[in-house]
Write a structure and sequence with these properties.
- The N and C termini lie far apart (about 80 Å).
- By secondary structure, the chain is an alpha/beta fold.
- Helix 2 packs across helix 3 and helix 9 runs parallel beside helix 14.
- About 40% of the residues are buried.
- The strands form two sheets. It has a nine-stranded mixed sheet with strand order 3-2-1-4-5-7-6-8-11. Strands 9-10 form a two-stranded antiparallel sheet.
- Helix content is about 45%, strand content about 15%.
- It folds into three domains: about 200 residues, Up-down Bundle (Ferritin), CATH 1.20.1260.30; about 280 residues, 3-Layer(aba) Sandwich (Rossmann fold); about 35 residues, no CATH class.
- It comes from Psychroflexus salis.
- It is an enzyme of class 2 (transferase).
């Protein structure tokens, strides 16, 4: 039933988004539709929890009147309980269903203007957390929902009408939050994020890693583990990659950092909506390389899809930074790929595993990057595997990419596994896509760690050294397909026959030219 409900929910939510977004860009309307879904989630969660708290007293949350002294005491008790359990509080008249009703009233004597009320409610959710443990997780969470933006309509009435329509459509959908065995809404939210990403072009890379790539990364860092203490993503986007790890094993704590403010808000919403308690995640907003926010912490699993070949300051002062100082060189200003790798290795626990997506150039570029790559392999011996992915697998870019897997304590410390999965994919519209079969083949090959003809090769460290630490996959995995042997005698006979045929045709043309009293063209 949950799979059917999930598909139904995905379709309903995406239809609402398409129907109501008008001429707005996908990434602009995304913030509104995801924000409203999140508000409905918080509201329903609050409603369910409050009714549970009040059950023994035979009361319903929506029936409590804050102007009644007795009811006000009950509300205070519910508030205290909710702030500890949920991390936030909503009054009965602030619930999503109530504001949706007000926005769609037809009575002449009652206003259906809700923009100011809705703005106040979203602000109240954030204010309710002030001074509590959840303050950092809810602070400014709704700041991107500008309900007075002309993108929603040129006039106040037009904006109010659109917002009321969105809320009315969402109000009809049953999120089934009391079904605690499934994560249907969380999966539907991820589906929406993916749909918006596919329509956002180059901007998509800022907040989303394709689900199948996320699955590969998550499986790589959780192999053989039924639980992990912590997972970290230094460029966490919408938190989709972090949450994917939790589908592979039990995760105690989630950590992430994100530069883009809007995406940072989306990341926190995504965590909360997946029912990750606010005490179990620590997502922060800042530049990871320039201003790391989890400096003294080590993590059991690290996953990342950093922006490809991004710019960074490469300030010489970083040569004194513990993350970079051992290497003697910094990644170049115009290509921060190895700066992210160095940052992640610094944060990796001694028994941890790290998997990062990088452009192919990171495998073979020279100068400072070549030096860092050699240091990681020769001095630290922390590179465990290189996996080539198909081109055109990420939204907004067609460049070929790879996954590099690192471990501090490698069971196979005398070799590096190379997998060439670049030719195994399915094409969906303009995008290449990894199927479940492709994902499983990558993971199984990584686990068995054996040579596979034209697909995988276990290279000794000596071989890598002989290749000057160039990790370009074709140097190790031979994908050359032998052509059928050429029968030279048959080709010779065919050429003779062709020449004979040409001579006969030339004679025929010459005859026609003579009949027409024309010079021959040869």
């Amino acid at each position: 039933m949950s799979e059917d409900h999930k598909k139904q929910l995905e379709t309903q939510l995406w239809n609402i988004a398409n129907e109501l977004r008008g001429k707005m860009d996908a990434d602009e309307f995304r913030d509104y539709i995801l924000g409203f879904i999140f508000f409905k989630y918080l509201s329903e969660k609050m409603h369910i929890y409050a009714d549970e708290v009040l059950k023994d007293d035979g009361l319903q949350f929506v029936d409590l009147n804050p102007d009644d002294a007795t009811d006000a005491e009950y509300l205070d008790a519910v508030r205290e309980e909710a702030l500890g359990k949920l991390g936030y509080f909503l009054m009965p008249n602030e619930l999503f269903s109530e504001i949706a009703k007000r926005g769609n009233k037809k009575a002449v004597d009652q206003s259906n203007f809700i923009i100011e009320d809705l703005t106040a409610i979203l602000n109240n959710i954030e204010q309710s957390t002030m001074g509590t443990d959840s303050e950092d997780d809810f602070g400014n969470l709704f700041e991107d929902l500008d309900l007075n933006s002309t993108k929603l309509g040129k006039t106040v009435d037009a904006r109010n009408s659109l917002i009321a329509k969105v809320l009315a459509h969402l109000d009809k959908i049953d999120f089934k939050l009391q079904d605690t065995e499934s994560d249907v809404l969380g999966d539907a939210y991820e589906y929406l994020i993916a749909q918006f990403a596919s329509g956002a072009g180059k901007k998509a890379g800022e907040f989303y890693t394709p689900q199948q790539v996320s699955k590969v990364l998550a499986k790589l860092v959780t192999l053989g583990k039924d639980k992990i203490k912590s997972v970290y993503d230094p460029t966490c986007g919408s938190s989709s990659l972090l949450l994917r790890v939790a589908k592979e094993t039990n995760v105690a704590q989630f950590f992430g950092q994100e530069l883009n403010r809007t995406t940072y808000n989306l990341a926190r919403m995504n965590m909360i909506l997946h029912d990750v308690h606010y005490k179990r995640f620590d997502i922060r907003q800042e530049d990871t390389l320039e201003k790391p926010q989890h400096f003294d912490q080590k993590f059991e699993a690290i996953v990342a899809n950093p922006p490809f070949s991004a710019n960074w300051s490469a300030n010489d002062l970083f040569l004194g930074d513990e993350r970079f100082s051992h290497y003697g060189k910094l990644a170049p200003k115009s290509k921060a790929d190895y700066a992210f790798v160095q940052h992640m290795l610094y944060h990796l626990d001694e028994q941890g595993t790290m998997a990062v997506v990088l452009p192919h150039g990171a495998l073979f570029r020279g100068a400072a990057e070549g030096h860092i790559r050699e240091f990681i392999i020769k001095e630290k011996n922390e590179l465990d595997a290189v996996i080539g992915l198909p081109a055109n697998i990420f939204y907004g870019t067609s460049i070929p990419t790879c996954i590099m897997v690192f471990k501090k304590c490698r069971p196979n410390d005398q070799d590096i596994l190379f997998i060439d999965a670049s030719q195994e994919f399915e094409k969906v519209k303009t995008q290449n896509y990894l199927t479940e079969e492709h994902v499983n083949k990558i993971i199984n090959t990584y686990q068995t760690r054996e040579n596979v003809d034209k697909y995988a090769y276990v290279a000794s460290l000596k071989e890598v050294e002989e290749n000057d630490y160039n990790l370009n996959i074709p140097r190790y995995v031979d994908t050359f397909e032998e052509e059928e042997p050429v029968d030279l005698e048959a080709v010779s006979q065919e050429l003779k026959q062709l020449n004979q045929d040409i001579t006969e045709v030339d004679k025929e043309i010459e005859g026609y030219c003579q009949e027409l009293n024309l010079n021959t063209p040869f």
